[in-house]
Specification:
The protein is an alpha+beta fold. Helix content is about 35%, strand content about 25%. It has one domain: Gcn5-related N-acetyltransferase (GNAT) (Aminopeptidase). It is globular and about 45 Å long.
């Protein structure tokens, strides 16, 4: 397995994985908030390109035989509490490994690469969000050392 930063030439493959993650969230949650229909890959290319080109964002890919099988999307965001002594935090915007490659330590290796990326930007804390009913995501991120530190709620008005 090869792990590397994504380049613009990788945008379409990364967008395919991003789309697969979005559709998984939509289908598994049943929440109308995620009701984005069919979601063509082309729609995902713009945000993926932004992550690849951003000064404080990047995508790491896991490749096997030259084909991407997993990715992690990283970015720096403001801390949710402006009074915190840590005004900026690292954020894992997405993590995805193709189903047939799961449980092989790929996300663990991708997540390790986030440490160097964020440290180079002076970041000391990294956050990730996942849906409360997504037991697989919770298990994965807990195994990587992430602990719940706040809960976020939403209300439709």
């Amino acid at each position: 397995m090869i792990y590397r930063k994504a380049e613009l030439a990788d945008a379409v493959e990364a967008a395919r994985m991003y789309r697969a993650l979005a559709l998984h969230i939509r289908d598994s949650s049943g929440d109308p908030y995620w009701g984005f229909g069919d979601l063509p890959v082309e729609v995902a290319i713009e945000p993926i390109t932004g992550y690849i080109q951003g000064a404080e964002s990047c995508i790491y890919l896991a490749e096997e035989n030259g084909k991407p099988v997993g990715m992690i999307i990283l970015e720096v965001i403001p801390c949710h509490m402006p009074l915190s002594p840590y005004p900026r935090v690292g954020y894992i915007a997405a993590g995805y490994v193709k189903e047939e490659y799961r449980r092989r330590g790929i996300m663990k290796e991708l997540e390790k690469r986030s440490h160097d990326f964020f440290r180079e930007l002076g970041i000391e804390y990294v956050e990730v969000n996942y849906l409360p009913d997504n037991a697989g995501a919770k298990e994965n991120w807990n195994a990587l050392g992430y602990r719940c530190f706040r809960e976020q709620a939403r209300k439709r008005i």
